[in-house]
Amino acid sequence: MKIEEVHAIDAETVKYVMQRAFAEYNNDPVPSGAMQETTESIQASIAGGEETAAVCSIENRPVGIVRVREEDGALYFFRLSVLPEERGNGIAAALIRWVESKALQLEKEIVFCKVRASTPHNVRRYERLGYHIYDTFTVDRPEWPSFDVVSMKKKIPVEQSSHD
Question: Which is a Pfam family this sequence falls into (predicted)?
Fold first, then answer.
């Protein structure tokens, strides 16, 4: 298993893995916005420095991705994606460890994510990795039914030596 930060040129890989992973939510009352993202929008976001992404590969085959951006003095990860046939192999946990390492590099003490409340298995997964719920809010959009989102965070101990 190898995890590497990718560049804008790798946006198609990011989109492919993300949309394969999020396809299971296509029949939800409110489909995931991941399905509307384009290679070009991901490419522009990475190239513009608004976000970065990492790809997890096994034998040079992409099997998972995570996207991150700095927000409110913390590191926010989103669109954590693992191909359905690769789930249960520790890929998501490895990607989250990569995010936490990135937070240490950037001297960010907080890592957070947002999870749909309708996916309690995802909430439990993050809780097992040390994240806790700090907020819940409702998303209201005129074109969809409203839905609840859980915000979760984890404090990452920034090394004292990094401040010297």
Answer: Acetyltransf_10
pLDDT tens digit string along 28-64?
Answer: 888 788 989 999 999 999 999 999 999 999 999 999 9
Q: What is this structure's pTM?
A: 0.92
Residue with tokens 């409340």: 117
Is the dihedral angle over the CA atoms 110, 113, 114, 115 positive or is it negative? Answer: negative
Q: What pLDDT, on a 0 to 100 scale, did the predictor assign at position 161?
A: 42
Q: How many domains does the chain have?
A: 1
What CA–CA distance (Å, rounded) separates 4 from 86? 18
Residue 164 to residues 29, 55, 106, 161: CA-CA distances in angstroms? 51, 32, 15, 5
Burial class (CB within 10 angstroms; exposed 0-12, middle 13-18, buried 19+) of 66: buried
Domain that holds residue 141: 2-163
**CATH code of the domain in which 69 resides:** 3.40.630.30
CA distance 138 to 23: 23
